[in-house]
Structure formats: C-alpha cells, structure tokens
Design goal:
alpha/beta, disordered N terminus, TIM Barrel
Length: about 325
C-alpha cells in the first residue's frame, strides 16, 4: 500500500536501504570455474562475466583441494576488488564437510568479494558462515562485513523447508541462488526436466520458492545453470523466462554462455522504455499515488521497480 503524500512504502524504503548497503550485488552473470585450472581462469576473466565463482567444492577432486586453495588465493591477490574485471566469489566446501575452515584460512587474507555457501540449509548456516568471516576480517584488518555471502539454498529436500529463514539472517546476504544436481540426488529424481525440456513439477516448485524467498529477504534471486552449454537457443529461452519471472541473474558453467546471459539480464528496449515512462509520469505528478499510461494503472511500487531498472541499465 502506498502512503499518502507520494511517500514510498516501507518495503520500498527497505529495498532502497538494502541496495545502498550492497549496491555491488547487482550482477547479471556468475561464471563457475575450478580454482585449480589456471587456463580456464584466464578465459573466465575475459568472458565478460560480472562475477567469477572460483570453485573449491564440486569441480575440484579431494586430492586437489590444497592446490586449488593456493591457486584461488594467488588469483585473488591479483584480481580481487579491482575496479576493472569481474567480481571474485569463492565457492567453499560446505559446513558439514570439515573443509571450510581450511578454505577460509587460505583465501580470506586475499579479501574475496564474496563467499558462495553450498548446501545451505537455512539462515542459520548463513549466520554460522558470517561469524567465521567476521573473525577473519578482524584478523586480516578487512572492513567488517565487507565479505558478502551468496548461499545455494535448494541442494537438499530439507533445505527447501529452510527458505523462509533467510530474511534478516545477515547483512552480508547478497542473494539467493538455487541449484539442481544435488537436489536430484537427494530426492532420488532421475532428471530435473520433463520430456519437453522444462523443469518437472518438483523442480519448478523449488525454483519458484527461491524467487519468493529472495523477494522476502530483499535480495536478488539468481537462476541456476543451464548445463547444455552448446544449446544457445535453449539457454536464451530459459534466461528470458527467468528474467521475466523476476530473477536478477543467472549462473553459467561455460564462458560462451556469458554473452547471452548478460544480454537478457540488461534492461533494454520495451522494458527500459516502460520504466522511463513510469518515472516520467510520476515526475509530472509528484503527489500522485497512481498514474495511468496507455490505459494501464501504475502505483509507487511500480515506480520503485522502474527506478531500479533504469539504474541497472545505466550500470551496464
């Protein structure tokens, strides 16, 4: 509900505050790359991805973990928090593996942009990781809260029931991402897609719940990877659906996917024109609670969204 006098709703103000806290969370593409593959790392940097996810988890064999940690730390020292190039996120091993502390010991001195938390079960896991990060930031004289957290929130059946716990879990929370492969294994599904290539009912449900959970937490929802990296048309169709449904970004597993993802998640054309028209209409009627454009009614919730769309277009 819009308040009188043209003021924005409490939710609008909360969204503005969250974006002011982490304006850099506005990403379109996040590209996975194993931390122990230097040639792939260099190609990832050149891909145009907004963020690179250095993987210490599933893409790295257990015997290669120490090498991957050292490579990730070296890469971070060269690239992290640079004004140019992609943001660097590190996917560490999960809390229950006993390997996370070794991961953080290796990479935190090099100040990563963020940590991807795999197999997160609830906001309590985010809080657990946040406490670890606070200790490392103090130890290495990093700004408190500077390391963001991006959890993968649907990698088990139990995790789906924790989706409601992420709001207010941590000021470090930079988004919610959903995953498929581990969830398939956990529930015993043979495939996540039906004969038409669409998400089957259980996975469509989980996808949608992630979107709602991110909205409740006032953070971006990040769509899962499209594994058939040779199918550019399929990737485009899935990215278009994700963007239309409200996802802000999509993860990638191959550099060739990045250009398509960036294109889809950059506001342009009709979407940008509509946002500009909404802002212009409210500017012309500063005290209005609603405006009408071409027979359609828009309120100040639409105005807040239109402003974000214009800002996102300008950013990219």
């Amino acid at each position: 509900m819009t308040q009188k006098g043209g003021q924005e709703t409490g939710r609008d103000l909360a969204q503005t505050a969250a974006q002011a806290m982490h304006p850099e969370q506005d990403l379109r593409s996040l590209l996975f790359v194993p931390a122990d593959a230097p040639q792939r790392l260099m190609r990832a940097v050149q891909s145009g991805a907004d963020a690179i996810i250095l993987d210490l988890e599933d893409m790295v064999a257990p015997e290669h973990k120490p090498k991957a940690r050292a490579a990730a730390a070296e890469f971070l020292r060269d690239r992290s928090r640079s004004d140019d190039g992609p943001r660097i996120v590190v996917r560490v091993n999960g809390l229950e593996t006993g390997m996370m502390d070794a991961d953080l010991d290796a990479i935190m001195p090099a100040s990563p942009y963020g940590i991807m938390l795999p197999k997160s079960r609830s906001g309590m896991d985010v809080q657990h990781l946040a406490a670890k990060l606070a200790v490392h930031e103090a130890q290495y004289d990093l700004r408190d809260g500077s390391t963001l957290i991006l959890p993968l929130v649907t990698e088990s059946g139990a995790a789906v029931f924790g989706l409601s716990t992420y709001p207010r879990s941590s000021h470090r929370l930079a988004g919610l991402a959903w995953g498929v492969e581990d969830l398939c294994a956990d529930i015993g599904a043979e495939d996540a897609r039906n004969e038409n290539g669409d998400w089957s009912a259980p996975f469509a449900l989980v996808r949608n719940l992630t979107l709602f959970a991110a909205a409740a937490a006032i953070v971006p929802a990040i769509d899962t990877v499209f594994r058939d990296f040779g199918d550019r048309n399929g990737l485009r169709q899935e990215a278009v659906r994700a963007q239309a449904d409200g996802f802000s970004a999509k993860m990638a597993i191959h550099p060739d996917q990045v250009e398509t993802i960036n294109q889809i998640f950059t506001p342009r054309g009709e979407m940008l024109a509509r946002a500009q028209a909404i802002v212009a209409a409210f500017s012309a009627h500063a005290d209005a609670r609603h405006v009408s454009i071409e027979g359609r009614l828009y309120d100040r919730t639409h105005l807040a969204r239109a402003r974000r769309t214009i800002a996102r277009a300008a950013r990219f």
